[in-house]
Structures are given as structure tokens and as C-alpha cells.
Amino acid sequence: MTENGTQRIRLGLVGIGKIARDQHLPALAADGRFDLVATASRNASVDGVPGHPDIAALIAGDHKLDAVSLCTPPEGRYEQAVAAIDAGLHVMLEKPPAATISEIAALADRAEAKGVVLFTTWHSREAAGVEPAKAWLQGKQILAVRITWKEDIRRWHPGQEWILAAGGFGVFDPGINALSIATKILPDPMLLQKAWMEVPEGRASPLAAELEMRSGTAPVTVSLDFLQTGPQTWDIEIDTDAGTLRLGLGGSVLQLPGEDEQKAPDQEYARLYARFAELVAAGTSDVDIRPLQIVADAFMMAERRVTAPFAF
Ligand code: NAP
Questions:
Q1: What is the pLDDT of residues 209-224, one digit of tens each?
Q2: Which ranges of the chain would DSSP assign to H, the alpha helix?
Q3: Which pLDDT does position 6 carry in this prediction?
Q4: Which one of 72, 96, 120 terminates a domain?
């Protein structure tokens, strides 16, 4: 039971890798609405929690599960989500929610038909500066948007070969975080006009990309790079008729014109699990695929250049 007398959500965590350990486990441990009752991962487990090699064994185990949270790579997550939904479990998906648009549309239909909750999480939308940025932009004229997301794949994704395979998204794995913020705070849809990608020889997904978009009448440029050594950049700048708003460090730092920088502690995953608990209590799904649609558009439209082979 929780402090409010409601049943705690009995949760299974699937895919015990970097994000599960860095964020999901601490967030779950701190949230009194969840009990982590079991895990599923082929090569990893969590001390003190019963572990299974895959989601089928997790579901077959006698854990009286209410929900699962999937932290596996996007390719293959569809089958895991189908298994969970068919077993009557609520499902929380790491970003990106699926490898394709068709997969996530099918999952949304399936969850609705089964009467379970589906939650497509976008953790960067929970960064401290994002809600205040959205509020400040209300009623202002957007003149131009510049998104610069440049990080070092070897530092943040060591050995994650899947990220450059088909369905791994390449530089759009971090880049979709920027798109998740922009689609939340900009008043108008973001429409792709031109795109370029650099794909290393022998790989399926890009290490760099440039997008030219528009949102209303404002031009939006997106510059993504996975080979950035030295300082790392996760910035969104928005020129308006009232000056330039800057969101830095992935949305955690907000700079409004003429004001001091605003920063707050990272609460992204605490907020995601709080939201999941609310959705489960209300029996409501939250499925927003706009960031994924933009990535799909980019993969449809981009001019591709093959670059030198890449090794981790
Ligand atoms: P990761 O370290 O590779 O962990 C994913 C885990 O999923 C693996 O350790 C693996 O555990 C399991 N898995 C199941 N099927 C797999 C397959 N076919 N290939 C590889 N691993 C498989 O990846 P991650 O960084 O945690 O990312 C997972 C998801 O979280 C991605 O969608 C990513 O975009 C998202 N995410 C990552 C970060 C980050 O900073 N890394 C931040 C936010 C969101 P077993 O081998 O034990 O099965």
C-alpha cells in the first residue's frame, strides 16, 4: 500500500543496461508507489531482485505484475511490449518508443483494445527548464530556432553497437531528445524541408545529421553530431520578438533574455515514474509520437553521404 492507501504498482524492469542502472533503479527506489518485483535481461540482473532471461519468463514468473518498464534498445521492443500488453500489463517505454511509426501505432491500438496503459516517455521533456520555457514562449512570436546536439558516442554509449545498426537511430538516439523538447515547447508543428546524414561505411545509422525545418513561419535548424569530443553541447536557442531564449545542457538550464540562468536538480526520471503512476491510476495512455515522426521523416528525406568506417 502507498501512503494514500492505494495499491503499489508491481513493476518488472526489462533490459538492465546503462539507463536502467543510471536512472530507472534510483527513481523506482525513491518512489513509494512502485515495487520493483522482478527483472528481465539476458546477461544482467539487479541484486536482491528475482531475475529472468527474457520478458516471457518474467511474465510466466509468479510475480503478480501490474506493469513493465522497457529499457531495452528500440529494435525488438515491439515484441516485448506486445507480450506485456497481451498479458494485461501496463507498459512504460523508454525513448524512442519503437523502431518504426507502424510499431508504435500498432502498440497504441493493442493497448487500447486490451484496456491497459501505454506511456511513451520522453525524459528530456522533464528537464527543469522545459516547462518554464514553454510558458515563457506563450503568446510570443517565434522568429528562428537553432538546435545543436553534439556529443561523444564513445563517452556516452560505450560499445553500444546496436545504436549504429538498423533501428538504432544513430545520432538521432540523443537527437530525438532535442526534438522531444522542441515539439513540446513550440506552438506550431515542426515540418521537415531538407535533411543530410553521414553514415559510416558498413553501418546503417548516421553519426551526423543536419535538418532544415520550419515551425509556423520560423526556420528551424537542427545540427546533430555523435563525434564531438571536448565540451558537449545540448542547446536549443529560440529567437522571439521579446529576445532569445536559451535552453542548455539538455533542457536543464534556462536562460531568458535579461534574466539570470535558472537551474534545478535533475528530476527527469522521478517525474516520468510519477506520471506513469498517475496514468495507471487514471487508466489513461499517453502516446506522443511527434519526435519519432520527425526522425522517420529525416530517414525518408535525407541525402546520405557514406563516411569512413567507425569503431568504438
Ligand atoms: P544499453 O546500455 O545497451 O542497455 C540496454 C540493455 O537492453 C542491454 O544491456 C541488454 O541487456 C538489453 N538488450 C535486450 N535486447 C538487446 C539487444 N538486441 N541489443 C542490445 N541490448 C539488448 O542501452 P541504454 O543506453 O541503457 O539504452 C536503452 C534505451 O534507453 C535506448 O532506447 C536509449 O535511447 C534509452 N536511453 C538511454 C540513455 C543513456 O544515457 N544511455 C538515456 C536515456 C534513454 P542484456 O544483454 O542483459 O539483455
A1: 999 999 999 999 999 9
A2: 18-19, 25-30, 55-60, 77-86, 101-114, 130-137, 153-156, 172-185, 268-282, 290-301
A3: 78
A4: 120
Whether 161 and 302 share a structural domain: yes
Question: Considering 18, 64, 95, 134, which one is annotated as catalytic?
Answer: 95
In the reported structure, the alpha carbon of residue 67 is separated from the centroid of ligand 1 by a whole-number distance in angstroms of 19
Kindly report the pTM of this predicted structure.
0.97
Inside any domain, residue 92 = yes
| Pair (23, 109) in one structural domain | yes
- Does 95 participate in catalysis according to the annotation? yes
Whether residue 4 has pLDDT greater than 90:
no
Helix (H, G, I), strand (E, B) or coil at 155: helix
Atom 31 of ligand 1, residue of closest alpha carbon = 73
Q: Which residues line ligand 1 (CB under 6 A)?
A: 15-20, 41-44, 71-74, 76, 94-95, 123, 156, 160, 162, 173
Instruction: Provide the greatest CA pair distance for the chain.
Output: 59
CA of 211 to the centre of ligand 1 (A): 26
Grid cell of 183 as nine digits: 515539439
173-195: pLDDT as tens digits: 999 999 999 999 999 999 999 99
Q: In this structure, is residue 144 part of a structural domain?
A: yes
Pairing of strands 233-240, 142-150: antiparallel
Range of the domain at 76: 9-120
Neighbours of 64 (CB within 10 A): 8
